[in-house]
Amino acid sequence: MGLLLPMLFTIFVALVGGLYVLGVFRKRRPGEPPLDKGLIPWLGHVLEFRRDTFKFLERMKKKHGDVFTVQLAGNYITFLQDPLSFGAFVKESRKKLDFNTFAEQMVYRVFGYVPIEEDYHILHSSSNKHLKGEGLDVMTEAMMSNLQNLMLHSVSSDQKTWKEDGLFMYSYNIVFRAGYLALFGNVPHKSEGGEEQAKEKDRSQSETLFYEFRKYDQLFPNLALGVLSPKQQWEVDRLQTFFWDAVSVQKMKANDNISRWVWDMHQAKEELGVKESNINKYLFVLLWASQGNTGPSSFWLLLFLLKHPEAMKAIREEVDEVLKETGQEVQPGCPLINLTHEMLTKTPILDSAVEETLRLTAAPLLLRAVLQNMTLKMADGREYFIREGDRMGIFPYEDVHLDPEIHPDPLSFKYDRFLNPDGSKKTDFYKAGKKVKFHNMPWGAGVSMCPGRFFPTNELKQFVFLMLIYFEFELMNPDEKIPEIDFRRCGLGSMQPVRDVQFRYRLRY
Ligand code: HEM
């Protein structure tokens, strides 16, 4: 009896503690957003959220309005779904809403990289220097020569023979490989065998890298959520080891034309004494961040053009005009042209089509950790108390990109949606009579905004530009419907289709 009471007491305390951890006692306090814990203790709504983020958030919005807190795998996340109030989230001080905590946990779990304090500064300073302005001139040139090497090599020398392929795999493959070579460098031309053999090695090495990358890409949604089966985990471990070697410092240093973007970041880390094995892992992070989104986006862009002849015609005319202005012409046997960054600044119609493509197919989920109790102030004057230790998130794809008030007929591709009648870039979009500042958010916003964004915009334009001037291309079945989006990737950036679409292409001249 003497022992029984303390034992019962210990069990009681453990039980209450367990229930507390499972979130059973959490109640909505006055001033807080509606709370929806879901039926399953601790897990809450995570299964539905994982299955289809879009549908889940839509259902919650209908039930609770545009601000609510849900339980997802032990975390309480407040979703803000009023785009007019996004400024309160994006501009909140980093002392209250912090992005780095997520980024650091994610890069360690997903890429094995152990973050250092200086990461953010190094990444942003290198990106500002080398992925925009004059830096972008250099990157455009590098991308250009790699695209030409890959695209022109893939067609038969018999010019009138059609080549068939899946449009998704073709676009992703070419854009991934050219992007990788432009950033991580080429096999040196001076090596044994000369220029032709070096180009051949670039093609074959980047091809191997792409196929391994796709395997990682397909495991990524489960990896990001931490729900891999043992077999998948084994495959992830194998692929990580492969990439830590394939894009290692040593391999990179053996190359020519390494981009300053990658070089400067690696050098800054070396100077800070970061171990080489950890820098190798960071290079894998860079490979992932730089190549996981642009390829899928290039597929959607080409597909939308193929399905919208009026858009294809307008852009083809624009591209032909820009080429003509520079006095260049593609001729049989002499296909190389010099497509510069400056030429790509003269294509407002293509710019609008790129923006429209990203509106329809890029769906990042922006998350922050709440570091201090805070008050969320909405644009219409409402205020909500948000608890320290929780998280906050916005999902612009649903609340901005597909909002019919901001973008009428939101599911349709309209290549000129981001153009004013006078041909200039359109930036005025409205909701409830108010101007919406964040009217398209494929790059995220605030501290987590894609630091590379000018470069991929350029890459997409270069790829389409070259496809149009070099090739005739068409869908095998012109009536084929645009495939559905694979919503399991929602929140991760550019989305992918549930299936590929067959097309054929051949040289235009
Ligand atoms: C269509 C192509 C692309 C899209 C839609 C895109 C979008 C995004 C988004 C939404 C984020 C923020 C992710 C978050 O909040 O967690 C991000 C991060 C990032 N992006 Fe991009 N991106 C693209 C291409 C690129 C390219 C080509 C590069 C580099 C050359 C790049 C470099 C990065 C890096 C390094 C980060 C991590 C930033 C950090 O951790 O602070 N992205 N991107």
From TrEMBL:
GO terms for cellular component: endoplasmic reticulum membrane. GO terms for molecular function: heme binding; iron ion binding; sterol 12-alpha-hydroxylase activity. Keywords: Endoplasmic reticulum, Heme, Iron, Lipid biosynthesis, Lipid metabolism, Membrane, Metal-binding, Transmembrane, Transmembrane helix. It comes from the Eukaryota. It is found in: Endoplasmic reticulum membrane. GO terms for biological process: lipid metabolic process. Heme binds at C450. It is a single-pass membrane protein. Its cofactor is heme. Substrate binds at R109, N293, R391. Its main location: endoplasmic reticulum. The chain crosses the membrane at residues 6-25. The keyword DNA-binding does not apply. The keyword Nucleus does not apply. InterPro entries: Cyt_P450, Cyt_P450_CYP7A1-type, Cyt_P450_E_grp-IV, Cyt_P450_sf. Belongs to the cytochrome P450 family. This is Cytochrome P450 family 8 subfamily B member 1. It comes from Kryptolebias marmoratus (Mangrove killifish).
